[in-house]
Specification:
heterodimer; A: mainly alpha; Rna Polymerase Sigma Factor, Chain: A; 2 domains; B: two-stranded antiparallel ribbon; rod-shaped
Chain lengths: ~180, ~170
Amino acid sequence: MEAADINLIEACKRGKPSAQREVYTRFSPMMFAVALRYTNGRADAEDILQEAWIKVFRHIKSFSEHNSFEGWLRRIVVNTAITHYRRNQKHAFQLDVDEVHATPADLEAFKELDFTREELATAIAQLPKGYGMVFNMYVIEGYKHKEIAEQLGIDLNTSKSQLSRARKYLQGILGNMSKRAQKA
Amino acid sequence: MKAEEFDQYVRAQFENETVAPRAEVEDAVFASLSAATRKRRGIAAAAILLVATSATALWLNAPAPAPAQPDAPAPASTEVAVPVAVAPAIPADQPAEGVAPVASTPSDEPERTAPKSKETPAMDEHATSAPVIMDEVASRGLSGVELHATSEPQLQQLEGEKWVLPATVEVKD
């Protein structure tokens, strides 16, 4: 971490408003992108972002400069998104998993992946919520299965099986998207 | 394609992804922060006020300081009291109506002089000032009231903390 960043964080720890504004301006776009992946729309993502920033400034004194500040922020957003999700849909997680039986396609079918970020984001957003959570946490944020299981309150093997199903499900969505693109 | 390759591909696509939120979110975040700060300061101020009030109350309700030394001047409050109770608003030359003659036996006479106390100089002041006030009552000439003012208080201190009440005992056949 650069000295300027450390000074900025120290100023935030002292509660300096201009430093807080600067940190917000620099990191909000990254945090909002994370929040969007865990929600159905911008309104929910904005709620998560707001809640996450309040947590950040309230607990910034506990942040150690030896760690990655961006990583710390991302974790706060993900945790806030999980809390938000649990609060709003207490039992939906299990229902999501139970509703999905089919795995439309296989990863082996893809020789080359040529999708834009927007296409991938659209495909991930179509995953059942429980699958999407596990997929985002494991693949994009780099969580381990043990952490995912603890965070989501599920079994370790459930996390593993959901990730596997999520991959296949996503593959199916991407396959359909690519077929439609070829026809067009 | 293997699962790890797929994961890497997806992760790479989302690396450094940014989406700008609406400006209203920033306002909401900092409004919430200042509200929380105000609330915290308010609670802190209330706590300080509470502590200060409690400390003042404790200080005010604390027991009185140790009695003054014997040679110290008596407090000004010792000059109040007894005269109000003793001086009636009755002309000096008229007997008070409804005042029955009181038996003049010393044992029946209520004694109004305060007992002598060695710990409170104020009580000593009362005890010494009482005969003077009784003289004033006598000068007004209340008929039917026979004063039994003694220069000495009834309770007498012997040695130490021991107090005695002098009494005459009559033994009848």
